[in-house]
Amino acid sequence: xxxxxxxxxxxxHLSLHRHxxxxxxxxxxxxxxxxxxxxxxxxxxxxxxxxxxxxxxxxDAPGALVTTTESQKFFCxxxxxxxxxxxxxxxxxxxxxxxxxxxxxxxxxxxxxTGHTFGGACxxxxxxxxxxxxxxxxxxxxxxxxxxxxxxxxTLPRLKLQPRVARQMLLEAHKWTGKAAxxxxxxDMIAAPSSMQEEALALAExxxxxAKMGVxxxxxxxxxxxxxxKMRSISxxxxxxxxxxxxxxx
Length: 250
Prior knowledge:
Layout: E1 3-5, E2 14-20, E3 25-30, H1 40-57, E4 64-69, E5 74-76, H2 83-86, H3 90-93, H4 95-103, E6 109-113, E7 116-118, H5 121-126, E8 130-134, E9 138-140, H6 143-146, E10 149-150, H7 155-160, H8 163-171, E11 175-177, H9 178-183, E12 189-191, H10 196-207, H11 216-233, E13 243-244
Parallel strand pairs: 3-4, 4-6, 5-7, 6-8, 7-9, 8-12
Antiparallel strand pairs: 1-2, 2-3, 9-11, 10-13
């Protein structure tokens, strides 16, 4: 039986539920219509949710997190490209530390890509350990077409994907269908819209016990520690620029 978790202060753009008390599987649902654009406020709420789950489960215990949405059209369409116009430190205060927190989270993470996954949602998805994708939607990173860059933007694709696929993602703005994303190893599973949530939860329950010895997070960092270090190095930075704002905004 799923039970809601109340964050303090209350979250405005997401909800958190405890799906299973035995396996300690939590479900974080993005609720920022219409496309779950990642601004500093939402990213900070994700960080708070991660910390709440970590404290609730405690050390040396099984546990896992599923990130999902209620929309079958959009999982997330990336960064709020207009926020830096009024807050030049938006990504340094939100997106970068959120990615660092995900990469350092001591429990397995599963992204349930319920709909289209575009732009900054691509590194967001790649920061999870596993990805289950709606078989009827797409995956598309368009940084090169927007003129957007931040230090370390290529680290997760390089560490997690085949060189050809990482090149297509970063330098070609290639568009993947669900089937093609699975074939290229971007996602671990594709599923029909009617079953994708169940598949993501099953994956989380399968791997939740792997956290009980307390080394899941440190072993993950052996694989993707470079990406975590890159994100930390540009988080909460005020003295220098850490990238280039998008020239084209969608």
